[in-house]
Amino acid sequence: YTIAEIIEIVLKGLEAPYPEILQRRLQGQSEQEIADAMDCGRERVRYRLRRIQERLQYLLREESRSVQKQ
Predict the structure, then answer these.
(1) Which of 53, 10, 17, 14 is nearest to 38 (CA)?
(2) Distance (Å, rounded) from C-alpha 7 to C-alpha 4?
(3) 18 near 51, Cβ under 8 Å?
(4) Quick check: 42 and 35 in contact, CB under 8 A?
(5) Tell me, what's the pLDDT at 52?
(6) pLDDT tens readout for residues 2-44
(7) Which of 5, 24, 54, 60 is the most buried (most CB within 10 A)?
(8) In Å, what is the CA distance from 60 to each residue of 31, 53, 67?
């Protein structure tokens, strides 16, 4: 997979503002910078980044299991 494909898979099914938060994080913005830009609290940004991370970990585990079965 390319990075773009991985990001697309991770964000599939996640509604706004998840794509924007991930995009800003990948551009190097801090949690506080993202929160300021999106007019929300840092804890809300942190929670959403955690959800993205958990989804990525889940997808990677599933992919690993799929590869092991082959």
Answers:
(1) 17
(2) 5
(3) yes
(4) yes
(5) 93
(6) 888 888 888 887 899 999 999 999 999 999 999 999 999 999 9
(7) 24
(8) 24, 11, 10
With a cut of 80, say whether residue 1 has pLDDT above it: no
* Dist. CA 20–CA 26, nearest whole Å: 10
Between residues 45 and 2, which one has the greater pLDDT? Answer: 45
Let me know: does 10 contact 52? Beta carbons within 8 Å: yes
What is the pLDDT at residue 41?
Answer: 98
How much helix, strand and coil, in percent to the nearest 5, is found in the chain? 75, 0, 25
